[in-house]
Amino acid sequence: MKTTGFHHVAIICSDYQKSKKFYVDILGFSVIQETFRTDRNSYKLDLRVGDTDQIELFSFPNPPQRTNSPEACGLRHLAFQVSNLDAAVANLQSHGVPVENIRVDEITGKRFTFFKDPDDLPLEIYEK
């Protein structure tokens, strides 16, 4: 199998309107398409991240809880690349989003930090 990159990352949220506001209004991702699927009583919101990347935000009635510890087996976290970490942190904090202290990657020497979405999913911002 030869891949050319990621097509999208899919996220299931517990409160669609709250998560939509977070990803669109706070993180600044643009809406590609919003679809309500009547047969599933579910929204699917396609969001543009950067120039080519995409997140699919889903809502389902009563989704089961998932372990969100970054050290649990499975997807650890989702990292977004930014050119100015300090500005990104200030933007998140201006919207009341708690952000961990900035760290330095001991391997690359790059700065990064973590925050959480409305469902406590661990998200990272990594300075390019």
Automatic annotation (TrEMBL):
<dbReference type="InterPro" id="IPR037523">
    <property type="entry name" value="VOC_core"/>
</dbReference>
<dbReference type="InterPro" id="IPR004360">
    <property type="entry name" value="Glyas_Fos-R_dOase_dom"/>
</dbReference>
<dbReference type="InterPro" id="IPR051332">
    <property type="entry name" value="Fosfomycin_Res_Enzymes"/>
</dbReference>
<feature type="domain" description="VOC">
    <location>
        <begin position="5"/>
        <end position="128"/>
    </location>
</feature>
<keyword id="KW-0479">Metal-binding</keyword>
<protein>
    <submittedName>
        <fullName>VOC family protein</fullName>
    </submittedName>
</protein>
<dbReference type="InterPro" id="IPR029068">
    <property type="entry name" value="Glyas_Bleomycin-R_OHBP_Dase"/>
</dbReference>
<dbReference type="Pfam" id="PF00903">
    <property type="entry name" value="Glyoxalase"/>
</dbReference>
<dbReference type="InterPro" id="IPR037478">
    <property type="entry name" value="YwkD-like_dom"/>
</dbReference>
